[in-house]
Amino acid sequence: MKILGVDPALTVTGYGAIDFKENRLSFLEAGIVKTSSRQTLPQRLDKIYQALTKVISEVRPEVAVLEKVYVHYRHPTTAYILGEVRSVIVLACARNNVPLVEYAATRVKKAVVGQGLASKHQIQRMVANMLRLASIPKYTDITDALALAITHSSVMKVDKIKNDCAYFRKSS
């Protein structure tokens, strides 16, 4: 299963695609979509939409993963802008019939590092290790996106074990 993780932001949106087959993770591709503050908001959102639509058409993921929104109440503008960026990502997925799932940041950290309060540096190192990358990606936006994809593979693995156990109980 191809899984696309997306870490949304107006200035730098990160994305990362992995393949999860037979309980093994394989790195497919990752990158960023960078916009300039000199562009208008509609231009920036369009650039993110177009770039992610292209990534989706090339990678052909079976599912996309976003982080659940958490924004501190003292920063309402951040929530507003993040919501707009997430909207174009959701639209790109909908237009390409890619199902979307969301996980809380603490769930992602726990799945990748083993604890919900892991640092960005710990996430970077674990993602690089899990995907056998030659080096740690320059942007944390990339490792955050890959961490989202890895989390979904982990959740799928647990769900499969639960289903297998339920089947075993029924047939015994």
Task: Describe the structure in your own words.
By secondary structure, this protein is α/β, with parallel strands linked by helices. The protein has five helices and five strands. A five-stranded mixed β-sheet has the order 3-2-1-4-5. Helix 3 crosses helix 5 (140-171) and helix 4 (120-130) packs across helix 5 (140-171).
Major β-sheet strand ordering:
3-2-1-4-5
The count of β-strands is 5
Shape, please? globular
Domain count: the total is 1
Name some characteristics of this structure:
Nucleotidyltransferase, domain 5; alpha/beta; 172 residues
Quickly describe the structure:
The chain has 172 residues and is α/β, with parallel strands linked by helices. The chain is built from five helices and five strands, in the order βββαβαβααα. It has a five-stranded mixed β-sheet.
Break the fold down into its secondary structure elements and pairings.
Layout lengths: L1 E6 L4 E10 L2 E11 L6 H19 L3 E5 L8 H20 L4 E4 L1 H8 L7 H11 L9 H32 L1
Parallel strand pairs: 1-4, 4-5
Antiparallel strand pairs: 1-2, 2-3
Helix pairs in contact: 1-2, 3-5, 4-5
